């Protein structure tokens, strides 16, 4: 069962450089959330702050009643046991084979026998499709396999919160699609709380229950997937629909001349909201809502063609 993460007025700077300020949101227990934002907006910094690797300048991160931004080191050590983390490059130990990489957290943080460790490791490697690759070194396998090995390692302690730092980076679209399905299925099986940092718009539009967007040193918006995918907020609309017209430019913000040149341009219509990706077994996850429910509850008319599927069952 996942746990809730309450983030309040979180602010982080490096020297005089403000990364983001007054970030406030609640990551719901057991749901899948995606955090988006242009490059350099501090998405990975946010993940590192949530697990206590970085201390915020102010604000709080409360998990099960403990504020990890100000708690003693011994309490932080215990809270970290609730987390599993998939780093961008997998963060494998290059001199260890995949089996020992995945077993590492169990040997460090539990008193399990080697027989018990083996049972858990093989279960998680089977879960991510790596049975038969246990003896391979990280340098002998593809980037996609390293991602899956990193995910197996993140899951061996049965975490209640799993953080994914750009899990799709360096992967081709097909592998990204397989990884997204694996994430959906794992959430359905574990009911853990998932927070994914990504730049992949297709992932953001089809996988999560909630979406957040970091922009211009603040949290521009956070809420249910349908809320953001139907939003007319310029920065949200531009980013989630990969449009050139809007406040985001090559250097994050467009200058006055660029914005003036866009005045009077007609924005393309919002694309249809796709169906949310479902678990392989077809049984809805706990955090999954019926298609269009948020729009109906809030009196929002979704873009034409929303929540439809083709004969092949692929959302359009």
TrEMBL record:
Residues 255-316 are annotated as: Disordered. InterPro entries: AAA+_ATPase, ABC_transporter-like_ATP-bd, ABC_transporter-like_CS, P-loop_NTPase. Keywords: ATP-binding, Nucleotide-binding, Transport. The keyword Cytoplasm does not apply. Gene3D superfamilies: P-loop containing nucleotide triphosphate hydrolases. One of its GO terms (molecular function) is ATP binding. Residues 5-241 form the ABC transporter domain. Pfam families: ABC_tran (PF00005). PROSITE patterns: ABC_TRANSPORTER_1, ABC_TRANSPORTER_2. Residues 307-316 have a biased composition (Polar residues). This is ABC transporter ATP-binding protein.
């Amino acid at each position: 069962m996942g746990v809730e993460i309450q983030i309040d007025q979180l602010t982080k700077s490096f020297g005089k450089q403000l990364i983001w300020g007054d970030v406030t949101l609640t990551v719901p227990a057991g749901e899948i959330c995606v955090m988006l934002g242009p490059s350099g907006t501090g998405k990975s910094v946010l993940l590192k702050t949530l697990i206590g690797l970085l201390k915020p300048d102010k604000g709080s991160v409360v998990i099960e009643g403990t504020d990890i931004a100000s708690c003693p080191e011994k309490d932080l050590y215990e809270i970290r046991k609730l987390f599993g983390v998939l780093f961008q490059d997998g963060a494998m130990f290059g001199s260890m084979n995949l089996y020992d990489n995945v077993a590492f957290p169990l040997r460090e943080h539990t008193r399990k026998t080697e027989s018990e460790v083996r049972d858990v490791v093989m279960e998680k490697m089977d879960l991510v499709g790596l049975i038969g690759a246990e003896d391979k070194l990280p340098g002998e396998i593809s980037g996609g396999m390293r991602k899956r090995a990193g995910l197996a390692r993140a899951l061996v302690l049965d975490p209640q919160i799993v953080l994914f730092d750009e899990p799709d980076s360096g992967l081709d679209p097909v592998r990204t699609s397989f990884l997204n399905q694996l994430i959906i299925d794992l959430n359905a099986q574990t009911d853990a709380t998932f927070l994914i940092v990504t730049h992949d718009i297709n992932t953001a539009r089809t996988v999560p229950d909630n979406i957040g967007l970091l922009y211009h040193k603040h949290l521009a918006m956070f809420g249910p997937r349908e809320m953001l995918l139907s939003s007319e907020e310029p920065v949200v609309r531009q980013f989630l629909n990969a449009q050139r017209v809007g406040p985001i430019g090559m250097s994050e913000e467009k200058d006055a001349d660029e914005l003036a040149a866009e005045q009077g341009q007609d924005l393309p219509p919002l694309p249809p909201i796709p169906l949310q990706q479902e678990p392989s077994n077809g049984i809805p996850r706990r955090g999954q809502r019926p298609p269009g429910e948020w729009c109906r509850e809030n009196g929002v008319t979704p873009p034409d063609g929303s929540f439809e599927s083709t004969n092949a069952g692929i959302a359009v």
